[in-house]
């Protein structure tokens, strides 16, 4: 695959010596009546036309990715697209929750994206937008992409919690969705693996990866099997690794190389 060659160029030491510009912005959410921070990483001396929305995991925040993998700045310079790391709350899973206490899906799709595209003058076509993330953010990225294919052309997940139902007592999810044994339909509607029917043929290019020692490894395998069974094209990568920063600092190289290839194909066409 061509994106592997882009990755090999990065590993071979071809990262630029200069660094991207890193901004922290405040985006007003009228929907949730608060200001929400985001890190925006822009390539130095180059006008970006495309944007990757990069979501953090449970208990993280807008700065988590740049702290975990600071070489993202060099990757942005190499590939030339914008990276936006929004704050998704402590445990939002990037849902609009049934109780409307969290409205992070609407925030990202209706408030953050227009703000970024106005402020940074990047492309506003779905083929100029990609979304991915780790753990809770991996779930969030696929959840948002499957439900908003008019907004995103490309999506991914690294170590994603792509089926939340095996973990009914974890990460405060039942606070928002209710007890799983009492509200199974609500849980089904809020878990990625049950939303594959929404994916239109040839609508999304997908890249999913997970470490073989990750507690989310089995649910990622199940999603891969289901996507394959449903004849939904996707790239699936497994590597040795656990659910930790040591894995994510490696996996982001593959993720960003993949989206660089996606954006490049759009430019060439």
TrEMBL record:
Single GO molecular function: acyltransferase activity, transferring groups other than amino-acyl groups
Stretches of the chain forming a coiled coil according to its record: none
Signal peptide start-end: 1-19
Source species of the chain: Sphingobacterium haloxyli
Alphabetical keyword list: Signal
Pfam families with a match to the protein in the record: Esterase
Protein name per its UniProtKB record: XynC protein
InterPro entries: AB_hydrolase_fold (IPR029058), Esterase-like (IPR000801), Mycobacterial_A85_antigen (IPR050583)
